[in-house]
Amino acid sequence: SPGVKVVCIPFIAVRTRYRRSGIGRFLIKRLKRPSQVGPYDALVIQADVESVEFFRSNDFSDDIILNSRFRESVVDDNGREILPRSVSCGRRELMCYLPPFDGHYPPMPGTNEWNRSEVVNAIDDEVERWRARSLEAYQSQWTCIARLQQEIVKLRSLLKRQEYGFNKLRKENLSLQKMLLQSETQSTLALIEAWKKETANYG
């Protein structure tokens, strides 16, 4: 999304013999620090299926809808995934870490601490953006619902007209069948009567 600072982690791993010793958590903890990677709005990684639980335990989310927002961050202009060959095989899950507001905006010149007023302003800006997006989403949803309702009304009206036409055709068909039966009956009776007369003449 425009204005969203995303840090994409192309690859992170620990040798098998050194796993479960806290190295992975240490690396993730360092990557989360703005002092290491700069201010950001999200850390994004495509995790191997086997490592999904590890990243979940380190506050990464694998929510599909949430991560769809960052899908464009892990592909190039041609739609190809930006991943090294060493992790280009096997199924992966797109996961993201969203940091707190505090500590993710530049400090004032000449200071070593994050400026608190900027953090508050950033929170206010984020809430305002959320409100605007929520309102837009609400309007879009109700627009879609209203149009679907009108479409249903239209389809019901069409079905009623089709049902009326079908019933009318069925009645006409029954009437024609009745007329045909009567005509066939009359023709049969006429033939029988003519046959009787002809037989009587020969008798």
From TrEMBL:
The lineage of its organism: Eukaryota, Metazoa, Ecdysozoa, Arthropoda, Chelicerata. InterPro entries: Acyl_CoA_acyltransferase. This is N-acetyltransferase domain-containing protein.
